[in-house]
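Section 3.1: Structural characterization of target chains.
Under the original work plan, the team committed to producing a structural model for every single-chain target entering the pipeline before any wet-lab resources were allocated. The record below documents one such target. The sequence was received from the expression subgroup and is listed exactly as submitted; it comprises 410 residues.
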Amino acid sequence: MKQCYTERQREFVELAGRLADVFAERAAEHDEQNTFPYENYTDMRSAGLLRLTLPTELGGSGATQAELIPVIERLAMGDGATALAVNMHLSPLGQWSSIWRRTKDPRLAGFLAQAAEDKLVWAAVTSEIGSPNLMTDARTTARRTEGGFLVSGRKNFGTNTAVATHCSTTARYEEAEGGPRLLLMRIALDDPAVTIHQTWDMLGMRGTQSNDVEFAELFVPDEAVVHSLPVGHLDARVLETVFSWAMPAFGAVYNGIAAGALDWAKRQAIRRGIAGQPLIVDTLAHAEILIEQSRAVLYRHAAEVDSRALLTELNVQEGIARCALVKYVCTNNAVAVLQKLVEVVGGAAYVRKLPFQRMWRDAQAGTFMPFANHAAREIIGSTAVGIELAPTIGPEETGPDSKAKETADD
């Protein structure tokens, strides 16, 4: 369905479209060979796309969340794996850029300027085997040493680490005053204490090369610890800087995969002369409706983030539930779209040399990425009936001095 874009959105989407059409030609090879698309990053860097969400004052394009969403979606129409990988760079930079615009923090400005000079590519590495990735705890440990911490542990699903220079990660500091805390920190991936293990051999999203990342007594200086919170708490800063950006960005990736599959299916139906058949028309309509539902939720969310209503009119759990809902709707709608389109493309959905089967496999990953379906329903349902799932650190309390609470409150 044709989109109504602003002039800036259209400019960014057209750039993404030119790149995505090239990436689509390479996607099958990377999927089959289980390799990372380095050449796609060369193209995105040359086109300035890696600077998309950085402030214009610091050398970026200044894209808002509402301008990032259609770009990620358009990239995913060509290659879902590349879109998911670069999302791990563009989304965090968008988070921190929005904070810099409010605070003008000089340390943050220096960090963002590095990215604008193409000296920094980011990844978010917080997932751990056997632990829900809800930014409330970690199995990775941090031990106090002079001037910082020694961090040890192993993360999985390290998307974008094949090309990233730095990443954000989490560790549990057990001996913190007042009880254990979750530390959020920035690290350089070329540190000798960091090892990337080649573990990625999955059903879909193969080109992301989301390998395991291990830290072995990695020294993290105090200034690289950007935030902390009491273990087991929901935190306002995490809502603002992680969930409010990451969840819609994930949603845009999977909505883009669905839109790409729909576009391919429509072309097949027209080529085969069946586009006017009632079953085909009905199925295509169902797919269009699901994709547009996801877009409506995505852009509502972007408006609430841009206006800060998500942070000022909702409490922390309500805000996180809202973020979880965005990602849930988009990823589950994407899976439904791919399933429905089998009725249009028929046996072509099962042919390995055709792109539909890769799109179908890539779409399946969305339902277990954070918030995984069951975790999303838990926080959405609990919030709807007023059940507080965890103690809350509100916006006036968040920071290194935040205190643990015995019971949840507003």
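Residues 99 and 105 are 8 Å apart (CA to CA).
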